[in-house]
Amino acid sequence: MKSRLLPALVGLMTTIAMVTVGGGMTDVAMASSSPTRLSDSAVAAYKAQHDTKAAYVRAVAAAYARHNAQKRAKYGSRSATAARSANVAAAPLSVVSGSGWAYLSPLNQQGEQRSYWCGPATVSMVAWTVPGPSNVNQSTAASWMGTNTSGTSEGQETSGLNHFVGVPDYGWSFYGFVSMNGNPTSSQRATFLSDLKIDVSLNSPVAGDAWEVVGGPHLVGHPNQQIFHWFEIGGWNTNNGKSYYADPATSVWSTVPPYSWFSTYTMETILGGRGYAW
Description:
Blueprint: E1 13-18, E2 28-32, H1 40-50, H2 54-63, H3 65-75, H4 80-83, H5 86-89, E3 95-98, E4 101-104, H6 118-129, H7 138-145, H8 154-170, E5 177-179, H9 186-201, E6 206-212, E7 227-237, E8 242-246, E9 259-263, H10 264-271, E10 275-277
Helix pairs in contact: 6-7, 6-8
């Protein structure tokens, strides 16, 4: 998670804070003393004006576009048991499900061991959640992906997921990256939920690539600052419009719970301007 200097989008900005928690660049950010919820369009406008990684994120997503289409075609209409590789199929399903909902149990959660290791923590959490031989610690994942104080990029995170989880557990480079507009379209929102359903049915969480801005929506317990952050999404419920996630930022802020059910629509808005690896 990282912070950038924000203009006065939401009234008086009073508290100076440094946020260095895993996802993007490290700068001083200003937190509002009286948060005002920005509209989705205002959040998107801010992101469009301040996105220094837009071309890179689009390029990573374009590189995985064919992969993503093949994965949807391969798994979208097949049963979970039939679709899993031999390694994963040998283990029992960890999916708890009912009419209109499903989640992974147990969903591994770890606090990031360094303030910029949300990317390695998420890879390790996914590795320990997916049944099979893939178990990796945060230090090994960080070293292999090249994580530094600027965090873990979209390309690094997706490659790390494939190296430590996709190939050993599913027998191929299972994970791809999908980008989302600053204000995700209805099609992008529907695709996210569909992709989440596929991965959960196959015993895998999705790695969310959050971009939170001052005055915009935040994950549970996150302060009102600009934050870039990787986290693990492991469930969905269309009955109440929520998704289930595990947050490695528990070691950064005491206000962050390890697990939360959270509005899927709001989560998609938070992913706007970045995306997810699934």
